[in-house]
Amino acid sequence: MKRLFAILLMATALTGCGYNDFQRLDEDTKSRWSEVLNQYQRRADLVPNIVASVKGEANFEQETLTKVIEARSKATSIQATPELINDPAAFDKFQQAQGELSSALSRLMVVAEQYPQLQANQAFRDLRVTLEGTENRITVARNAYIQSVQQYNVLARSFPTNLTGMVFGYKAKPNFTVQNEAEIARPPTVDFGNK
Predict the structure, then answer these.
(1) Contacts of 15 (CB under 8 A, 6+ apart)
(2) Rounded distance between C-alpha atoms, residue 30 and residue 35, angstroms
(3) For 76-97, what is each residue's pLDDT tens digit?
(4) What's phi and psi for 67, nearest 5 deg?
(5) Residue 3 burial by CB count (10 A; 0-12/13-18/19+): exposed, middle or buried?
(6) For the domain 30-135, what is the CATH code?
């Protein structure tokens, strides 16, 4: 009888401890993270096609292409495993590499606008539209991941579920941050100079 009572008491205590919520939210963040990785991979797969279509333009800046290729190589060299979302240093390194690829691709698109023949190329225009769509998908996937991590981190930091988190090793997860926060906080310089 005492044993049965102890089992019932323990089962009742565990239902309010948040263990199942940790399981659910941990799986949700892993799932959302997988979608972020899926979209980053989609973008990385587009880069060789974009570079190949741009290389056909005889005078195109080689330095710009080289930076895109190097950024893609760096971004894809990082092992993006589900464990990455539990390691703040590795997560930051991954995020920085993806940010460098985004910047390199943005520069490439700006420079590409200076080449009318390239702009007239239907294949390049199609790739550009696909890249823009992929960047939007990355934003949506990242936002879903950010929300999922927020829910998980609230559970990990709230009482009494934080005690369950400590016992079972559930720590707060890192989230996406703005890489150049000070730079983007500065208002842009607008110059309508006389032309």
Answers:
(1) none
(2) 9
(3) 998 877 778 888 888 889 999 9
(4) -65, -40
(5) exposed
(6) 1.20.1440.20
Token pair for 160: 């009494």
Structure tokens at 52: 């190949």
What residue type is 93 in one-letter code? K
Rounded Cα–Cα distance for residues 177 and 89 (Å): 13
Indicate the pTM of the whole model.
Answer: 0.77
pLDDT in tens, 157-167: 999 899 989 99
